[in-house]
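2 proteins. here.
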Amino acid sequence: MAGNDLGSLLGGLLGGGRSGGATGGATGGGAGAILGSLLGALGGTQGGGAGNGLEGLIGILTKSGLADQAQSWIGTGGNEAVTGQQIARALPEETLRKVADESGVSPQEAADEIAQHLPETVDKLTPTGQVPQGGSLEDIVREQAL
């Protein structure tokens, strides 16, 4: 399944490789599975069916009042933190529930994992200070993991 592949790629990007389960907590593998599920769920939901998941996520966070935090992750400076509560409020409830179900954790645990690892992930996926437009998210992750 593409979500599992994306989770493995993101886990590798975060330094967790292919180890760690969905409940891996601090491991990159567990966070990769949750972030992979989130970005996979958001891919194609913005802009009339186009997008790579990252674009959609940034749009959702921006509309939810987290624009400054999201821009700090994209930019080349420091990364502002977010809380699990902020993530839970920003994401559509059904999206967070789907991510949690696919990852085998509660929605709050999923939101906490997303909040903990999303700043670093977005930072690594946007090294030039811009969100990659179009293309598959798997290709973008592979490119940044090299």
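next one coming up
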Amino acid sequence: MKDIEELLRMTERPQDYTDEELQQLLDDPDMRTYYELMVKAEEGFAQRKTKHDKGVRLWKIAAMFIGIILLSGITFAAVHIIRGQKSGGMKQENMVATKSQPSAVNHQLSGSDTIRTFENAELQQILGELADYYHLDVDYRNEQARHIRLYTKWNTAAPLSQMIERLNGFEKVSIRQTHNHLIAE
């Protein structure tokens, strides 16, 4: 084992050894075998790296072509949309949303599932809707918690525990459920 360590040092820093010391170490048949294996391994790694680099280049070229095709498609779509607007075939309404006003948006999924999006909504509004939906009461142990503003989504088909876990992921929010109560601290 000590000889192998010496062989590794020799290959890393051959300038620290005289020609005689190098020759003496390589005269040992076992050391010669280890040295040849090290050389073959290094050649194998070099070949693999070259193949890998070629593969990476091919992927980069493919990605570039895909990007060009995607950009062409977007341009094509934009031209058709603009032509449609100029011909009067499309009406466009401008809507302005103010971030300081809380809002909630529903997105209907299949069946009775609905995604409810709360944008800049107070925790009081969010918990109020959860409580109504799940037939619970809300207790606030910290009055400041009522006014914490959040942006979150709620899938009404998901269990209440999942929404509580999501809300508890926010800083300064701590909610737990006991029997028929949601407790906000």
